[in-house]
TrEMBL record:
<protein>
    <recommendedName>
        <fullName>Glycosyltransferase 2-like domain-containing protein</fullName>
    </recommendedName>
</protein>
<dbReference type="Pfam" id="PF11397">
    <property type="entry name" value="GlcNAc"/>
</dbReference>
<keyword id="KW-0732">Signal</keyword>
<dbReference type="InterPro" id="IPR021067">
    <property type="entry name" value="Glycosyltransferase"/>
</dbReference>
<feature type="signal peptide">
    <location>
        <begin position="1"/>
        <end position="16"/>
    </location>
</feature>
Amino acid sequence: MHFRAAAAFVLAGVASTSVDMYNPPNINYNTEHGIVRHILDPATQNTPLRFTQQHLRPPPPRLPSVFDIFIGISSYRTCLDEYCKLATSHWGECKFKSHITIDSHDAAASQGPTIARHTQQQLIRDEEFCLQLDAHSQLLADWDTKLVKEWVRTDNEMAVLTAYPSGFHMIDENGTYPHLSASHLCDHSKRSGPDDIPFATGILFIEYSERPQLSAFFGAGLSFSKCHAEKRVRVDNYTKWLFFGEESLRSYALWSHGYDLYSPSRHGSVVFHNWTNDPSRTSYVYHLYLFFIKLILRLCKSNFMLVYIRYMQHPLPEAARRRRADEEKASGNRVRAVLTLPFHGDVDTTGLSWFYNGSVRSVESFLGFHGVSNANASWDQERCHQLHWVPYERPEIVEQLLPGWVQEGLGAHERSNDMQNLVADTLQALRDQWTKDKEHMLHNVELMHLKGLEDRTHLPASVAEVLPAMAVGVALASVAL
């Protein structure tokens, strides 16, 4: 299902502030050693960690004055009739009905969420922004302007706002989000071996969340970005029944094409998710249910157990169940092949070079950023600390997408010339110093030699005078290298 929304507005500037020393954004999470707390500083997140790259920045956001927003929803039912009833009672007609496109498919032929998301992407036309979310979601008033403002605040044209949205229970009676925290993904479920497919443990909350937070995790429940991300990075439709692993695969596909993931701050928390199967269920009961399901999955890692749990409520004929189990296993191996994880059995490589042709950043670089080891699962690391933007290994690909931007940034040629001039001036100064001191050094050496001949037991104190000149020589050689 596709909705088309139009928007035109002027964004107010948002000051780039550093961490509030009294109420800094922070995140707490449980480990086997106790609770760990990270203080975050998102004002620095677009600055690379490497000293030699700290002048680099991601491409700045480009926001036209008028634009459309594509809204994609995969749903088991259509809401068009209900929408038209509400619209007619309000406007006297089913206003904006022409903006809605419904692509219907037989539910019996369903093959999982990734196939639905791939089909959904085909409905995108020339919209500027794309919002993909689950059907069981709720949006706050002015969600469109707030999401775009939040996207601009990433200071990154290649930003994707993504997370697991908070539950309906966090919306107050006024239809607003009153909390100081925001949903964030930053930790993996524990893997028993390197062949286990990584997936996020679930929502962790950043307290005092004021800015979008750089993340290593894609959350399928919310994705908001420029539509060039959806057009350039297609969802793999050869991953039938893929559920666990969908998000790590999407994280890699986007990241390798130059996109960066950010979880929205509390100011951009406008999408909410129904995390219950029944509206009457409390959040506590649902999370208790999730706990036991995760416990079972950790104890029983087999594909059979995954399929069995999934079909307890919706039994299929034996032949169909076995076929689906085989297809799900093949999809898992496809994920492992893409992420260079060990796997056993067959893998369908159809279209791999088309879906995973991103070379802006490498898969090795992604695994390091994502905190996953393809050699030893005990080396996996959480990514709840402050992450930093990783420059592109092949920036020319993004530069071609965004004419006028180069990774070195504005004034790169001038900065390069200034650096060359500085090096040249330094070398010349060292050469002059070397020439000036060389005669003095040779003169001192000659004096020491003569003095030593006069008294062979006398140690020449003038060695200290020679060392500075020798240091100049060493420095000159080092710079020349």
